[in-house]
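Deliverable D2.4 — example input (structure tokens):
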């Protein structure tokens, strides 16, 4: 399947390999209007990086404008449960609410908390890989990539093991709404998952309020109850869902995208197997090389100009992370996978006030699973070529079949 030279997020060939089309966008200019999604595409690293920090843009506009004032249509009423859940999470808020919530979350999500999880993460990664080796192989996504971060964030939140089965399906259904122009069926699934996930967390929060534990939900309750700046119950629910979704989606996809890239570059895999000290740099390079979140959106709150093109208030920008991470103005030979790359300012964790609060944990998880696979499954090899998920924004595989021994 030849990679197309035009941006088309609904074309399977483009989804399979969007990077040639990104190169065309970068060469043709700094900003392009894309009518099918009514967005302005921004493909270059310098612009994406600067716009992520530009306060004339926002993840929401409702802190300043009504839908009517902003020239937008309110979401249909039947989607209200999804939007209530999504719109109260800090990823989709702007100051002052974003500042308040992020400060309270950071109190419970400290570097010490994350570092304290490292032995648990490494032990769990080792157990998952040992099971894969004992079985002679399996699906790297199902057997290692997915259960590791889901278990870690569930452990952090204090979600009992017996309650964890629906977490990934709920997350997948909710995250379907982050694709461009989601279908009515996607919206229905997201609404149902939003209701079920919210109901579950409301019950769990009530139980933790009665009997606090050493977990993130209890920490959020303490922040809610003790500070002048408080988290409402809806903000707590939305924060927990955001931490669960963001806390594993990127890690799952970075793991399978990364190993698929390594299998296609045997020289780099051989170098990694020979020198495990390359792991930290490999994690960064693999996230750059095949970016798990390809696009991040921003609303234009105040008119801006990009390279002589005026973007009016009310427009939406599509910041192309995948393209920015392959910009030759920043990365030497960007189409080459180079695990020893030193200068690697990728933006896979975003930037500015919405920089990923879970980035340190994601790095620990990715390094733990990679190290466990290198140490315990040195003969790991691809069993069959994988298939891409049909999604563009959240880039991943449907599975990654591997053999050991």
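Example output (designed residues):
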């Amino acid at each position: 399947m030849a990679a197309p030279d035009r941006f088309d997020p609904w074309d399977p060939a483009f989804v399979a390999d969007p990077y040639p089309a990104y190169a065309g966008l970068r060469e043709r200019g700094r900003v392009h209007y894309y009518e099918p999604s009514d967005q302005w595409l921004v493909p270059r690293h310098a612009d994406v990086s600067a716009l992520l920090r530009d306060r004339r843009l926002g993840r929401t506009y409702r802190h300043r404008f009504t839908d009517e004032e902003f020239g937008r249509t309110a979401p249909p009423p039947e989607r209200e449960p999804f939007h209530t859940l999504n719109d109260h999470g800090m990823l989709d808020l702007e100051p002052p609410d974003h500042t308040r919530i992020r400060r309270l979350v950071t109190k419970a999500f400290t570097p010490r908390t994350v570092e304290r999880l490292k032995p648990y993460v490494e032990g769990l990664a080792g157990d998952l890989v040992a099971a894969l080796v004992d079985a002679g192989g399996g699906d790297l996504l199902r057997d290692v990539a997915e259960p590791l971060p889901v278990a870690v964030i569930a452990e952090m939140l204090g979600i009992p093991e017996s309650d964890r089965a629906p977490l990934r399906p709920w997350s997948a259904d909710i995250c379907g709404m982050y694709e461009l122009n989601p279908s009515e069926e996607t919206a229905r699934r997201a609404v149902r998952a939003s209701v079920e996930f919210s109901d579950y967390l409301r019950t769990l929060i009530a139980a933790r309020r009665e009997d606090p534990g050493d977990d993130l939900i209890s920490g959020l309750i303490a922040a809610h109850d003790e500070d002048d700046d408080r988290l409402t119950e809806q903000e707590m629910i939305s924060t927990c869902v955001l931490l669960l979704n963001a806390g594993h989606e990127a890690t799952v996809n970075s793991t399978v995208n990364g190993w698929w890239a390594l299998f296609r570059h045997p020289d780099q895999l051989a170098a990694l197997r020979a020198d495990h000290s390359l792991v930290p740099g490999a994690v960064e390079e693999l996230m750059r090389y095949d970016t798990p979140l390809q696009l991040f959106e921003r609303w234009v709150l105040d008119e801006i100009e990009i390279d002589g093109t005026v973007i009016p208030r009310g427009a939406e920008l599509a910041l192309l992370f995948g393209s920015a991470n392959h910009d030759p103005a920043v990365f030497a030979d960007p189409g080459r996978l180079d695990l020893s790359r030193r200068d690697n300012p990728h933006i896979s964790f975003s930037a500015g006030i919405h920089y990923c609060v879970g980035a340190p944990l994601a790095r620990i998880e990715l390094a733990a699973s990679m190290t466990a696979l290198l140490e315990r499954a040195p003969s790991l090899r691809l069993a069959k070529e994988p298939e891409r998920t049909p999604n563009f924004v959240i880039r991943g595989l449907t599975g990654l079949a591997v053999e050991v021994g």
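The beta strands are 32-34, 39-42, 57-58, 137-139, 295-300, 304-306, 309-311, 316-320, 381-382, 401-403.
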